[in-house]
Amino acid sequence: MTTLAKTGYVSVSRRAAAIVAIAVAAMALLCAWATRSESLPPPPVGLYELRVYTAADGKMPELDARFRDHTIGLFRKHGMMPIAFFHPENPDDHRLMYIMGYKDRAARDTAWTAFDSDPEWTRVYSASQANGALTAKVESLFLVPTDYAPALDLTPATPPRYFELRTYTTLPGKLENLHTRFRDHTLGIFRKHEMTNMLYWRPTGDQPGMDNKMVYLMAYPDKDARNAAWAAFGADEAWKKVAADSEKDGPILAATGGVVSVQMKPTDYSPLK
Fold it and tell me: How many domains does the chain have?
């Protein structure tokens, strides 16, 4: 009787210990997965959208507040990826420039339809416009990553970096020459001078006037570092040779408007900084 009771107690204790051990192991796995998930890169983005809002006179603080307090959260609610939000460095440029990411165009259109019809967004939008429209103009450009674009990295920097959006327009038939030069040479020379290659894009083909354009985003520690890096790049003998070799059959970029640069600072609510 005593022996049986003791044996039963040991058996039950062992089962309980085994259950506890399994639970502890499962919890450890979950914690490990959660930690690993936090460090995983963002999901691949097949389509980017550059959206440019020109603020109505005096309305930029209210536009920023709407994005900071409401819009970004609603974007995420509907499966969109807010990537970066910028103010041009030029104080006379009253634009908010931001970049969104999506799986593809169908996913983008579905998400925006849901966003536009969301009752919460309707309330936020109406309340924010009570004293007049916040924007005077809204523009949008659809972009796909080039084959040589670095992987999207949303790790913010401290302090926030200084950014530059550059748009190149080539002469007819020269766009692939430009991409080849960047793919094979320019990105490497940029890295040599401690310029950070962020994103490189081709505009999608369904947009008028975009056939001969390339758009890319760079980052630097600050404005002085940006200016010093570009000066060093321009004086680099390797770059001079690459530029000369690539233009043996004539210039690549259009003489007028061939390079358009916007230097920018991230907003306080931008994921990318």
Answer: 3
